[in-house]
Amino acid sequence: MSNATFTAPCLSTFCELDELGLVVTRQDVRRREAILECRRAEPDPWCRTCGAEAKLRDTVPRRLAHTPFGDRPTTLLIRVRRYACDHCGRTWREDMTSVAEPRGKISHGGVSWALRAVVRDHLTIARVAEHLRVSWHTANDAVLSEGQRLLVNDPARFEGVTTIGVDEHIWRHVRFKEKYVTVIIDLTPIRNGTGPSRLLDLVPGRSKDVFRQWLRGQSPSFRAGIDVIAMDGFTGFKTAAAEVVPDATAVMDPFHVVRLAGECVDTTRQRVQQQILGHRGRSGDPLYQARRTLLTGLDLLNARQFDRIDALFATDDHVEVEMAWNVYQKVIGAYREKNKKKAAKKMRRLIEAIGTAVPAALVEIAKLGRTLRRRAADVLAYFEHPGTSNGPTEAINGRLEHLRGSALGFRNLDHYRLRALLETGGFRPALHSGLR
Question: Which string of b and e fits 381-420 if b means at least 16 CB within 10 Å?
């Protein structure tokens, strides 16, 4: 850098104060904080009543939290001019709405930084408040208000949605109060291979009416664009979709079908355990020892697990567990079949086989057969619409569990909804591209 030219640093530009119309006049950079004394770059002495040029009367200080200066909380000490008009007697302060909200404690730049920190960097509100050196409530109100205005209320986020997933979610673990919400996920990027899924909305309650009212509350163009809805075995979601968007195809996703088959194996194992030994599974019981091996796919079993399965099914006392295990493996095999036509054929045969003429002793298999036969069209629809699964919905539920753990729980459902949308609403690309 032999020919480099250095100039004096401009804190107004470095701290992004030019965008707020401010200029730094003095600075006090300490070890634990930075204080920047500022004023408006362009004075505005013109009276709004008579149009005359007023005189500067004095200045009043206003403190605002701003984007941290490195790892130091930064405070803007703004000298706000006050004017007095000799013609009409009016007095007023400079308009500071371009710097911060009226009565706000954080500058627009600080609020933008806080929103990026929460959405893009997954910081908690407590950490954001610490970096800005404001109270938790001040930071939370600013982030949620800006996030709702800039991101959540943007109608464009509902455009181009063709595939959605619906599922229930527990937003708080309480005994007597409402704890369930219905989450609606955009699965269109997963189906098209263009990106991850994202949360569209989170609605209090879990019922047919909740999902139906949400669908009816959307625009006609949005409802007309929906052609596939992935869901679990809850018939209320299917009925609501059939009433509001009858042209959409309901798909019972593999995640829940495999889980139903796994529950069939578990409940059969537990019943047989009680019949043979008269107590729940213990560490030395063969059925209890094999509980996880029974739920492992056949192609993933190692030699030791194969030996355990062979020893378990060598006795006639475990024949009912063996039959439930065979059904479970066939369900997994159908979904792992690469040829979708063959996979659909396998699943159809299995549904027909366990949907009728099942021995009365096989209570769990008969129950599974009735469920799959009643939802056969939805189960088989997956093979016509590959990639439509509620697995990404469960993944987002996991991210929401992490959010709730990071925040040490939520008590306000409106706050939880907004934080959940900011966390999993797919807004990170917009903030990476410089959306302010």
Answer: bbbebeebbbbbbbebbeebeebbebbeebeeeeebbbbb
> What stretch of H or E contains 167?
strand 163-170
User: How many domains are there within the chain?
Assistant: 3
The domain that holds 235 is classified in CATH as 3.30.420
How far apart CA 357 and CA 384 sit, in angstroms, is: 28
Domain hosting 174: range is 160-250+389-432
Does this model's pTM top 0.85? My answer is: no
Sole residue written with tokens 């937003």: 171
Say if strands 163-170 and 228-231 run parallel, antiparallel, or are unpaired. parallel
Q: Tens digit of pLDDT for each residue in 193-209?
A: 888 899 999 999 989 99
If asked whether residues 106 and 25 sit together in one domain, one would say yes
C-alpha distances out from residue 278 to 270, 271, 284, 285, Å: 10, 10, 14, 12
Structure tokens at 223: 């409802």
* Contact yes or no for 181/204 (Cβ under 8 A): yes
Tell whether 135 and 181 lie within a shared domain.
no
pLDDT tens-place string over residues 271-284: 999 999 888 888 88
48 plus 70 within the same structural domain: yes
